[in-house]
Write a structure and sequence with these properties.
Low-confidence stretches: none
Strand order of the largest sheet: 1-2-3-4-5-6-7-8
Number of strands: 8
Strand content: 15-25%
Order of helices and strands: EHEHHEHEHEHEHHEHEHH
Shape: globular
Largest sheet: 8 strands, parallel, barrel
Mean pLDDT: 96
CATH topology: TIM Barrel
């Protein structure tokens, strides 16, 4: 099987815990980082601007995506321009629609014209991919983030959709496709096989990288030992 160091897909760490972000940033196989308001809320962050600027004092040489959080497109634009000003490695995450399901394509086109590096997020259909790509400046670095993991949660196989999205991005040479919200380590290898450019991975999944290529007989024995040891330590009797 393909070794981690032989993968073409770029692994981005997804999280908002500062210690975890810095731990993943230090790993050479992590090529960038992303976060979002939900992860930041779970991490207990209350000052959005202060958190982002603090992280950027250390992470200045790998792509780092921060998301706008307004539901109004005019305010979203103002937030995007401020966020973009924080660093050359900063990408601004723009949701594909607002909560009213009004599309963000006009805003994406406007920001792309201003050379803002974008990460268009929460995409789940090929029609959304098509319209986002049409709105981007093909020569400005950007990410098109398709939530393949959430697509899988609905019982649909995301691989054919992601493979089609790879083809759609060929008209925008500076844009890269992100396989977002993976559910298991296997997704990294699936993304690599179809030529997806980036996959965002949580720290919990990244910690399983040590298992790649592990002998399955040994893994079976490890599992049996785990069950036995846990039953023994629990004092179970029949």
């Amino acid at each position: 099987m393909t070794k981690v160091e032989e993968l073409n897909v770029k692994i981005f760490a997804d999280g908002a815990d500062k210690a975890g972000m810095l731990e993943m940033y230090a790993k050479p196989f992590v090529k960038g980082l992303t976060t979002n308001p939900t992860l930041m809320k779970k991490a207990g962050i209350t000052d959005y601007r202060a958190f982002c600027k603090d992280i950027l004092t250390t992470i200045a040489d790998k792509p780092l995506s921060f998301e706008v959080f307004s539901d109004d497109f005019a305010e979203m634009e103002a937030q995007a321009l401020e966020i973009a000003s924080w660093g050359d490695n900063v990408y601004v995450k723009i949701p594909v629609t607002n909560t009213k399901q009004e599309t963000a394509y006009a805003l994406i086109k406007k920001l792309a014209a201003k050379k803002v590096k974008l990460n268009v997020t929460a995409i789940m259909t090929l029609s959304q991919v098509r319209d986002v790509v049409a709105s981007l400046d093909p020569n400005v670095a950007s990410y098109v983030s398709v939530f393949a993991g959430r697509i899988a949660d609905t019982g649909r196989d995301p691989v054919p959709l992601m493979a089609a999205a790879v083809e759609m991005l060929k008209v925008a040479p500076a844009a890269e496709l992100i396989w977002a919200s993976p559910r298991e380590l296997l997704n990294i290898f699936q993304a690599d096989q179809i030529g997806c450019h980036v996959i965002t991975v949580t720290n919990d999944i990244l910690k399983k990288l040590s298992l790649v290529g592990y002998d399955l007989d040994e893994y079976s024995l490890d599992t049996v030992k785990m069950f036995y040891n846990d039953a023994t330590s629990a004092g179970f009797k029949l």
